[in-house]
Amino acid sequence: MELETTAQALVAPGKGILAIDESFPSIKKRFDSIGIESTEEMRRAYRDLLITTPGIGEHISGMILFDETIRQATAAGVAFPRALEAAGIIPGIKVDQGAKDMALHPGEKITEGLDGPRERLLEYRGLGARFAKWRAVITIGDGIPSPGCIEANAQGLARYAALCQEGGLVPIVEPEVLMDADNTLARCYEVTEATLRRVFAALYEQRVVLERLILKTNMVIAGKQCRVQNSVTEVAEETVRCLRNSVPAAVAGIVFLSGGQKAQPATAHLNAMHQMGSLPWPLSFSYGRALQDPALKIWAGKSGNVSAAQKALYHRAKCNGLASLGQYTPEMEELAA
Ligand code: 13P
What we know:
Blueprint: H1 3-10, E1 16-19, H2 24-33, H3 40-51, E2 60-65, H4 80-86, E3 90-94, E4 99-101, E5 109-111, H5 117-127, E6 131-138, H6 147-166, E7 170-177, H7 185-205, E8 214-217, H8 232-246, E9 253-256, H9 263-273, E10 283-287, H10 289-299, H11 306-323, H12 331-336
Parallel strand pairs: 1-2, 1-10, 2-3, 3-6, 6-7, 7-8, 8-9, 9-10
Antiparallel strand pairs: 4-5
Helix pairs in contact: 6-7, 7-8, 8-9, 9-10, 9-11, 10-11
The structure holds 1,3-dihydroxyacetonephosphate.
Protein backbone atom coordinates (compact mmCIF):
# COMPACT_ATOMS: atom_id res chain seq x y z
CA MET A 1 0.00 0.00 0.00
CA GLU A 2 1.25 3.48 -0.77
CA LEU A 3 1.89 5.77 2.15
CA GLU A 4 -0.98 8.11 1.23
CA THR A 5 -3.38 5.19 1.00
CA THR A 6 -2.29 3.87 4.39
CA ALA A 7 -2.50 7.33 5.98
CA GLN A 8 -6.00 7.87 4.58
CA ALA A 9 -7.11 4.41 5.71
CA LEU A 10 -6.02 5.23 9.28
CA VAL A 11 -8.50 8.11 9.38
CA ALA A 12 -11.24 6.54 7.24
CA PRO A 13 -14.74 7.87 8.08
CA GLY A 14 -16.06 6.42 11.34
CA LYS A 15 -12.74 4.88 12.35
CA GLY A 16 -9.81 5.69 14.61
CA ILE A 17 -6.70 4.16 16.13
CA LEU A 18 -6.28 2.11 19.30
CA ALA A 19 -2.94 2.64 21.08
CA ILE A 20 -1.77 -0.52 22.89
CA ASP A 21 1.91 0.42 22.89
CA GLU A 22 2.47 1.00 26.60
CA SER A 23 6.14 0.69 27.53
CA PHE A 24 7.16 -1.68 30.37
CA PRO A 25 6.81 1.03 33.08
CA SER A 26 3.43 2.24 31.69
CA ILE A 27 1.83 -1.21 31.40
CA LYS A 28 3.08 -2.00 34.92
CA LYS A 29 1.23 1.10 36.15
CA ARG A 30 -1.99 -0.06 34.39
CA PHE A 31 -1.65 -3.59 35.79
CA ASP A 32 -0.86 -2.25 39.29
CA SER A 33 -4.22 -0.45 39.16
CA ILE A 34 -6.05 -3.81 38.87
CA GLY A 35 -3.66 -5.63 41.21
CA ILE A 36 -1.96 -7.96 38.73
CA GLU A 37 1.70 -8.58 38.00
CA SER A 38 3.24 -7.39 34.73
CA THR A 39 4.72 -10.62 33.36
CA GLU A 40 5.41 -11.30 29.69
CA GLU A 41 2.50 -13.78 29.56
CA MET A 42 0.03 -11.40 31.25
CA ARG A 43 1.00 -8.62 28.84
CA ARG A 44 0.51 -11.05 25.94
CA ALA A 45 -2.84 -12.26 27.26
CA TYR A 46 -4.09 -8.69 27.69
CA ARG A 47 -3.01 -7.58 24.22
CA ASP A 48 -4.51 -10.82 22.83
CA LEU A 49 -7.87 -9.82 24.36
CA LEU A 50 -7.71 -6.36 22.76
CA ILE A 51 -6.56 -7.53 19.33
CA THR A 52 -9.06 -10.41 19.01
CA THR A 53 -12.12 -8.43 20.14
CA PRO A 54 -14.94 -9.55 17.81
CA GLY A 55 -15.93 -6.85 15.28
CA ILE A 56 -13.30 -4.35 16.50
CA GLY A 57 -12.20 -3.66 12.91
CA GLU A 58 -15.58 -2.02 12.25
CA HIS A 59 -14.46 1.03 14.25
CA ILE A 60 -10.68 0.67 14.61
CA SER A 61 -8.46 1.31 11.57
CA GLY A 62 -5.08 0.62 13.15
CA MET A 63 -3.46 -0.49 16.39
CA ILE A 64 -0.11 0.77 17.68
CA LEU A 65 2.01 -2.04 19.13
CA PHE A 66 5.06 -2.04 21.41
CA ASP A 67 8.38 -3.71 20.50
CA GLU A 68 7.57 -6.76 22.64
CA THR A 69 3.98 -6.98 21.37
CA ILE A 70 4.76 -6.97 17.64
CA ARG A 71 6.77 -10.18 18.24
CA GLN A 72 4.01 -11.94 20.22
CA ALA A 73 1.10 -14.11 19.05
CA THR A 74 -2.49 -14.96 19.94
CA ALA A 75 -3.32 -18.00 22.11
CA ALA A 76 -4.03 -19.77 18.81
CA GLY A 77 -0.44 -19.03 17.69
CA VAL A 78 -1.18 -16.32 15.11
CA ALA A 79 1.43 -13.53 15.15
CA PHE A 80 -0.28 -10.32 16.33
CA PRO A 81 0.43 -8.39 13.10
CA ARG A 82 -1.17 -11.23 11.09
CA ALA A 83 -4.18 -11.34 13.44
CA LEU A 84 -4.67 -7.60 12.96
CA GLU A 85 -4.44 -7.84 9.17
CA ALA A 86 -7.02 -10.66 9.21
CA ALA A 87 -9.36 -8.35 11.15
CA GLY A 88 -8.86 -5.54 8.60
CA ILE A 89 -6.71 -3.51 11.01
CA ILE A 90 -3.38 -1.90 10.05
CA PRO A 91 -0.48 -2.81 12.38
CA GLY A 92 1.64 0.06 13.70
CA ILE A 93 4.62 0.33 16.05
CA LYS A 94 5.94 2.76 18.66
CA VAL A 95 9.55 3.53 17.70
CA ASP A 96 10.64 6.18 20.17
CA GLN A 97 12.53 5.01 23.24
CA GLY A 98 10.78 7.15 25.77
CA ALA A 99 10.83 10.71 27.11
CA LYS A 100 13.85 11.25 29.38
CA ASP A 101 14.81 14.18 31.63
CA MET A 102 16.32 16.86 29.41
CA ALA A 103 19.83 18.00 30.33
CA LEU A 104 20.01 21.51 31.86
CA HIS A 105 16.20 21.80 31.56
CA PRO A 106 14.72 20.99 34.98
CA GLY A 107 11.16 19.63 34.73
CA GLU A 108 11.33 19.09 30.95
CA LYS A 109 11.62 15.97 28.78
CA ILE A 110 13.34 15.05 25.53
CA THR A 111 12.37 11.94 23.59
CA GLU A 112 15.17 9.52 22.74
CA GLY A 113 15.39 6.92 20.00
CA LEU A 114 17.40 8.33 17.11
CA ASP A 115 20.16 5.71 17.52
CA GLY A 116 19.95 3.19 14.67
CA PRO A 117 16.31 3.97 13.79
CA ARG A 118 16.75 3.15 10.08
CA GLU A 119 17.56 -0.49 10.88
CA ARG A 120 14.80 -0.77 13.47
CA LEU A 121 12.21 0.66 11.06
CA LEU A 122 13.28 -1.85 8.43
CA GLU A 123 12.88 -4.69 10.90
CA TYR A 124 9.43 -3.48 12.01
CA ARG A 125 8.32 -3.20 8.41
CA GLY A 126 9.44 -6.79 7.90
CA LEU A 127 7.34 -7.81 10.90
CA GLY A 128 4.26 -6.17 9.32
CA ALA A 129 4.15 -2.59 10.63
CA ARG A 130 2.78 -0.07 8.12
CA PHE A 131 2.88 3.00 10.35
CA ALA A 132 4.88 4.21 13.33
CA LYS A 133 4.57 6.53 16.31
CA TRP A 134 6.96 8.89 18.09
CA ARG A 135 5.78 10.78 21.16
CA ALA A 136 7.34 13.98 22.43
CA VAL A 137 6.28 15.39 25.79
CA ILE A 138 5.85 19.10 26.51
CA THR A 139 5.29 20.03 30.14
CA ILE A 140 3.50 23.17 31.30
CA GLY A 141 4.79 24.75 34.51
CA ASP A 142 6.50 27.79 36.00
CA GLY A 143 8.56 29.23 33.14
CA ILE A 144 8.20 26.08 31.02
CA PRO A 145 8.08 24.90 28.32
CA SER A 146 11.33 26.52 27.23
CA PRO A 147 12.09 27.30 23.57
CA GLY A 148 15.02 24.86 23.78
CA CYS A 149 12.76 21.98 24.80
CA ILE A 150 10.17 22.66 22.09
CA GLU A 151 12.92 23.02 19.47
CA ALA A 152 14.79 19.84 20.41
CA ASN A 153 11.59 17.77 20.46
CA ALA A 154 10.39 19.24 17.15
CA GLN A 155 13.72 18.29 15.55
CA GLY A 156 13.44 14.74 16.92
CA LEU A 157 9.90 14.34 15.59
CA ALA A 158 10.85 15.69 12.16
CA ARG A 159 13.98 13.53 11.79
CA TYR A 160 12.00 10.44 12.81
CA ALA A 161 9.19 11.31 10.37
CA ALA A 162 11.68 11.66 7.50
CA LEU A 163 13.21 8.25 8.33
CA CYS A 164 9.74 6.67 8.39
CA GLN A 165 8.79 8.03 4.98
CA GLU A 166 12.14 6.95 3.53
CA GLY A 167 11.58 3.47 4.99
CA GLY A 168 8.00 3.06 3.76
CA LEU A 169 6.09 3.70 7.00
CA VAL A 170 3.51 6.40 7.70
CA PRO A 171 4.75 8.51 10.62
CA ILE A 172 2.39 9.47 13.40
CA VAL A 173 3.93 12.64 14.77
CA GLU A 174 2.87 13.11 18.39
CA PRO A 175 3.80 16.22 20.34
CA GLU A 176 1.81 15.85 23.58
CA VAL A 177 1.26 18.90 25.75
CA LEU A 178 0.52 17.30 29.13
CA MET A 179 -2.73 18.09 30.93
CA ASP A 180 -1.51 17.22 34.44
CA ALA A 181 -0.78 20.73 35.82
CA ASP A 182 -3.00 23.54 37.18
CA ASN A 183 -2.89 25.69 34.03
CA THR A 184 -5.94 27.19 32.35
CA LEU A 185 -7.30 26.20 28.95
CA ALA A 186 -5.95 29.50 27.56
CA ARG A 187 -2.40 28.54 28.60
CA CYS A 188 -2.81 25.10 27.00
CA TYR A 189 -3.93 26.83 23.81
CA GLU A 190 -0.85 29.07 23.77
CA VAL A 191 1.61 26.20 24.40
CA THR A 192 -0.10 23.82 21.95
CA GLU A 193 -0.10 26.43 19.18
CA ALA A 194 3.58 27.34 19.74
CA THR A 195 4.52 23.64 19.75
CA LEU A 196 2.58 22.73 16.62
CA ARG A 197 3.90 25.71 14.66
CA ARG A 198 7.47 24.71 15.54
CA VAL A 199 6.83 21.04 14.73
CA PHE A 200 5.45 21.87 11.27
CA ALA A 201 8.38 24.20 10.56
CA ALA A 202 10.79 21.37 11.44
CA LEU A 203 8.83 18.87 9.30
CA TYR A 204 9.13 21.28 6.36
CA GLU A 205 12.88 21.71 6.88
CA GLN A 206 13.30 17.91 6.94
CA ARG A 207 11.30 17.52 3.68
CA VAL A 208 8.55 15.44 5.25
CA VAL A 209 5.51 15.02 2.97
CA LEU A 210 2.41 16.12 4.87
CA GLU A 211 -0.02 14.02 2.81
CA ARG A 212 1.85 10.96 4.12
CA LEU A 213 1.70 11.89 7.79
CA ILE A 214 -0.78 11.80 10.67
CA LEU A 215 -0.60 14.33 13.50
CA LYS A 216 -1.44 13.01 16.96
CA THR A 217 -2.08 15.78 19.43
CA ASN A 218 -3.67 16.74 22.71
CA MET A 219 -6.96 18.58 22.97
CA VAL A 220 -6.87 22.18 24.16
CA ILE A 221 -8.09 21.69 27.71
CA ALA A 222 -7.45 22.99 31.24
CA GLY A 223 -4.91 21.06 33.35
CA LYS A 224 -6.37 18.44 35.71
CA GLN A 225 -5.40 20.55 38.74
CA CYS A 226 -7.00 23.75 37.40
CA ARG A 227 -9.99 24.93 39.45
CA VAL A 228 -11.87 26.07 36.32
CA GLN A 229 -12.82 23.17 34.07
CA ASN A 230 -14.44 24.21 30.79
CA SER A 231 -17.56 22.93 29.06
CA VAL A 232 -17.49 20.31 26.30
CA THR A 233 -18.33 23.05 23.77
CA GLU A 234 -15.49 25.30 24.93
CA VAL A 235 -12.92 22.48 24.73
CA ALA A 236 -14.16 21.52 21.26
CA GLU A 237 -14.20 25.09 19.93
CA GLU A 238 -10.81 26.08 21.27
CA THR A 239 -9.21 22.83 20.12
CA VAL A 240 -10.46 23.28 16.56
CA ARG A 241 -9.50 26.98 16.57
CA CYS A 242 -5.97 26.08 17.70
CA LEU A 243 -5.58 23.32 15.09
CA ARG A 244 -6.91 25.59 12.30
CA ASN A 245 -4.24 28.12 13.27
CA SER A 246 -1.32 25.72 13.32
CA VAL A 247 -1.88 22.59 11.20
CA PRO A 248 -1.66 22.73 7.38
CA ALA A 249 -4.72 21.40 5.55
CA ALA A 250 -2.48 18.99 3.62
CA VAL A 251 -1.92 16.55 6.50
CA ALA A 252 -3.63 13.20 5.93
CA GLY A 253 -5.38 13.49 9.26
CA ILE A 254 -5.31 14.51 12.90
CA VAL A 255 -5.99 12.13 15.79
CA PHE A 256 -6.21 12.83 19.50
CA LEU A 257 -4.56 11.16 22.46
CA SER A 258 -6.76 11.02 25.55
CA GLY A 259 -4.02 12.14 27.95
CA GLY A 260 -5.84 11.23 31.14
CA GLN A 261 -9.35 12.35 30.16
CA LYS A 262 -11.97 9.88 31.29
CA ALA A 263 -13.51 7.70 28.59
CA GLN A 264 -16.85 9.46 28.15
CA PRO A 265 -15.60 13.09 28.07
CA ALA A 266 -12.94 12.09 25.52
CA THR A 267 -15.75 10.79 23.30
CA ALA A 268 -18.02 13.80 23.91
CA HIS A 269 -15.25 16.28 23.04
CA LEU A 270 -14.49 14.59 19.72
CA ASN A 271 -18.19 14.42 18.88
CA ALA A 272 -18.68 18.15 19.63
CA MET A 273 -15.85 19.07 17.23
CA HIS A 274 -17.75 17.32 14.46
CA GLN A 275 -20.88 19.33 15.11
CA MET A 276 -19.13 22.61 14.33
CA GLY A 277 -19.28 22.41 10.55
CA SER A 278 -16.75 21.14 8.05
CA LEU A 279 -13.08 20.75 8.98
CA PRO A 280 -9.94 21.02 6.79
CA TRP A 281 -8.64 17.55 7.77
CA PRO A 282 -10.08 14.19 8.85
CA LEU A 283 -10.24 14.40 12.67
CA SER A 284 -10.43 11.24 14.76
CA PHE A 285 -9.03 9.45 17.82
CA SER A 286 -5.96 7.45 18.79
CA TYR A 287 -6.77 6.78 22.41
CA GLY A 288 -5.01 4.45 24.79
CA ARG A 289 -6.59 4.79 28.23
CA ALA A 290 -9.94 6.28 27.09
CA LEU A 291 -10.57 3.16 24.97
CA GLN A 292 -8.97 0.52 27.19
CA ASP A 293 -9.77 1.51 30.77
CA PRO A 294 -13.30 0.05 31.08
CA ALA A 295 -12.13 -3.22 29.48
CA LEU A 296 -9.00 -3.38 31.67
CA LYS A 297 -11.08 -3.04 34.87
CA ILE A 298 -13.56 -5.74 33.79
CA TRP A 299 -10.79 -8.14 32.73
CA ALA A 300 -8.84 -7.83 36.01
CA GLY A 301 -6.44 -10.51 34.79
CA LYS A 302 -9.03 -13.31 34.76
CA SER A 303 -9.59 -15.41 31.63
CA GLY A 304 -13.27 -15.85 32.57
CA ASN A 305 -13.78 -12.08 32.07
CA VAL A 306 -12.30 -11.85 28.57
CA SER A 307 -15.59 -11.84 26.70
CA ALA A 308 -17.18 -9.13 28.93
CA ALA A 309 -14.00 -7.02 28.65
CA GLN A 310 -14.07 -7.33 24.85
CA LYS A 311 -17.69 -6.15 24.81
CA ALA A 312 -16.65 -3.06 26.82
CA LEU A 313 -13.80 -2.32 24.39
CA TYR A 314 -16.10 -2.79 21.39
CA HIS A 315 -18.60 -0.39 22.94
CA ARG A 316 -15.98 2.36 23.45
CA ALA A 317 -14.62 1.86 19.94
CA LYS A 318 -18.13 2.13 18.51
CA CYS A 319 -18.95 5.29 20.53
CA ASN A 320 -15.72 6.95 19.37
CA GLY A 321 -16.23 5.83 15.78
CA LEU A 322 -19.65 7.51 15.87
CA ALA A 323 -18.14 10.58 17.60
CA SER A 324 -15.70 10.94 14.71
CA LEU A 325 -18.81 11.39 12.53
CA GLY A 326 -20.61 13.66 15.03
CA GLN A 327 -23.21 10.94 15.60
CA TYR A 328 -22.57 10.04 19.25
CA THR A 329 -25.17 10.61 21.96
CA PRO A 330 -24.78 10.04 25.74
CA GLU A 331 -27.84 7.76 25.60
CA MET A 332 -25.64 5.19 23.87
CA GLU A 333 -23.82 4.71 27.17
CA GLU A 334 -27.03 3.90 29.05
CA LEU A 335 -28.21 1.51 26.36
CA ALA A 336 -24.94 -0.42 26.67
CA ALA A 337 -25.11 -0.45 30.48
P1 13P B 1 -3.65 7.99 26.03
O1 13P B 1 -4.87 8.06 25.16
O2 13P B 1 -3.80 7.03 27.18
O3 13P B 1 -3.14 9.33 26.43
O4 13P B 1 -2.49 7.30 25.17
C1 13P B 1 -2.39 7.58 23.84
C2 13P B 1 -0.99 7.43 23.41
O5 13P B 1 -0.67 6.64 22.58
C3 13P B 1 0.01 8.32 24.03
O6 13P B 1 1.21 8.24 23.31
